[in-house]
Amino acid sequence: MRLAILGLTMAAALPGTGASAADGVEPRMIVKDAVYRTVGGLPLHLDIYVHPDTGKTPGPVLVHFHGGGWARGARPESWTGFRPYLAAGFSLVTVQYRLAGQAPAPAAVEDARCALHWVGANAARLGFDSRRIVVSGTSAGGHLALMAGLLPPANDVDPDDCKQGPKAAAILDFYGPADLTATDGGKRHPTVANWIGTGPGAAAMERRMSPVTWLSAASPPVFIAHGDADPVVPVAQSIELKGRLDALAVPSDIFVVAGGGHGKFDPASQSAMTARALAFLCGHGVTPPAACGTKN
Asked: Could you tell me which residues are beta bridge partners of residue 37?
């Protein structure tokens, strides 16, 4: 199976839609460059956008990881690409993680898990409901969201200072690779090799860093979106992931964009994808009832 993970433009990296009726909803508090972890002298930051209703009652939060082949990219500079999620009652946290040039695997996954741990530890202070933390990501960020959400409490990945983090309430995987052991004619893709490394332990690290390795009947609900003409991460990766989730009876949904590339979806497909993701979260009790058209 062919696997190639490339960087995305910022516009393509965001899962939200453009301007809509949600434009009137804005964060009541913005915190930029909060340090959630310092490793090897390098501070890692996240940006926090608090929903206006969280001062009244704890609400859900979307924790988002950007794409870029684990080697490029940065967290979005603004919250505006996530307007539909804010309108549905979510606060937002966007995460910086170590790129391949700074540290190879499993560094980015360690950082993703530590970010999830930090959000849980600071949930009460920020007005977040620690039982309704959703992890999300695009491309390589989708992979990190899967790893952050699928790793069980007892694992050999979490750093000592980030153990016993909260369980994700759901995972939103936007065209992320789920199996890093997949090859093109038996040849490892250089993007994977760049992050994983090429030493004698590379094959074992690929399995350890593959979300499918960590699937279990206890996995949280997973929403998957993918273009069926994706030349970067094959849609077969997401179809196989969906099949494995079904076999374990883990709640999941897959939204396949006909003719869609690697996140460069047309506006109608983008809107439909976001609506489907939000409906999935409503169906699993993550979104506030008022945003789902139901009462408490």
From this structure: 44
Residue 211 lies in a domain: yes
Write the CATH number for 241: 3.40.50.1820
Does residue 2 lie within any of the structural domains?
no
Q: What would the pLDDT profile of 145-171 be if each residue is shown by its tens digit? A: 999 999 999 999 999 999 999 999 999
For residue 7, tell me if it sits in a domain. no
Domain with 91, as residue range(s), is 18-288
In a domain, 101, yes or no: yes
What is the structure's pLDDT at 188?
Answer: 79
How many domains, in total, are found in the chain?
Answer: 1
pLDDT in tens, 116-128: 999 999 999 999 9
